[in-house]
Amino acid sequence: MRKIWTPAVLALALALGSPLTWAQTWTEIKWQTLVPKNWDPTKEFKGFDLSKLQDSDPQADAILKKMREVWDAAPTNDSLQGQKVRISGFAIPLERKGEKVKEFLMVPYFGACIHTPPPPANQIIHAKAGRYIDGVKMMLPIWVYGTIQIQRSNTDWGVSGYALTVEKVEPY
Predict the structure, then answer these.
(1) Predicted model pTM
(2) Nearest residue to 145 via CA among 87, 81, 104, 77
(3) CA pair distance 47, 43, nearest whole angstrom
(4) C-alpha distances in angstroms, 51 versus 60, 62, 63, 119, 125?
(5) Distance (Å, rounded) from C-alpha 66 to C-alpha 73?
(6) Which residues pair with 27 in a beta bridge?
(7) Over pLDDT 70: what percentage of the chain?
(8) Per-residue model confidence as pLDDT tens digits over 26-42
(9) What whole-number distance in Å separates Cα of residue 150 and Cα of residue 75?
(10) How many CB atoms lie within 10 A of CB 120?
(11) Where are the domains of the chain?
(12) Spatial distance between the Cα atoms of 112 and 148, rounded to a whole number of angstroms
């Protein structure tokens, strides 16, 4: 039997921070949702046989530079604009005070932006909280809840295509 929540019950549950309400008011999205269905990041590189290039080859440098330009300009999924979402991923703290963090990047896999070149901009979310929060550690998996915006920003760790106003963080 499905429960029907009246507006008064939902408002009370929201005020009390009910876990049931969190699950009902946030749309869980996957990382592939951030990528427009028609975007092909390899389109401009068709016909190149990268296996024949050496690291020191000027053509390899040119292709890598072009790849970075394509990835930094990666298009976003405009249908997500303004949605309340939750997404799991790995955090890269940007602004911290002691053990608490106010700004961080969310990335889809461990080591993204740290040990490897940054992913495309449509796979990096610049998360910003209104206050310093606990539970955000370098490369630990977390759930982040908030309102997503289409907003490109440049950081020392990579270019993000999305911004997220953080309302809640939980361990994954």
Answers:
(1) 0.81
(2) 87
(3) 9
(4) 10, 15, 13, 21, 32
(5) 11
(6) 85
(7) 85
(8) 999 999 999 999 999 88
(9) 10
(10) 21
(11) 7-35+76-171, 40-73
(12) 20
